[in-house]
Amino acid sequence: MDASKSASMRAAINQQLTESGEKENLKAMIREQLRAHGWADDLKQYTKELVASKGEAITVDELVTEITPRARSTVPDEVKKELLTRIRGFLAQQGQQAN
Are 48 and 35 contacting, i.e. CB atoms less than 8 angstroms apart? Predict the structure, then answer.
């Protein structure tokens, strides 16, 4: 699948999720699971340590640049799998309703 087809497919899925309200449900599920796994607390501690080591002169943009890769890489696999399962289930249900 070429990049433009993949991007248009992602956009269509995002639109379906948004219009149905499922996107908000998925966001809530992700927030809840990340809290349950201690991800937010770990990231908060990392941020505090980063600010302490870099000093208070660090900008918000620099902080975001430093934190984002770590935040993404430390999302537990269980959360990623659950999200993918829920999206696949949603798409399967949408496909059945279209028939």
Answer: no
Q: Say what angle helices 77-98 and 22-36 make with each other, to 10 degrees.
A: 160
End-to-end CA distance of the chain: 25
Per-residue burial over 63-73, b = 16 or more CB atoms within 10 Å of its CB, e = otherwise = eeebeeeebee
Position of tokens 């992700």?
A: 30
- pLDDT by residue for the chain (99 residues), tens only, comes to 678 888 999 999 999 999 999 999 999 999 999 999 999 999 999 999 999 998 878 899 999 999 999 999 999 999 999 999 999 999 999 877 765
The secondary structure element, H or E, covering residue 14 is helix 3-20
Separation between Cα atoms, residue 99 and residue 2, nearest integer Å: 27
Position 3: which residue type? A
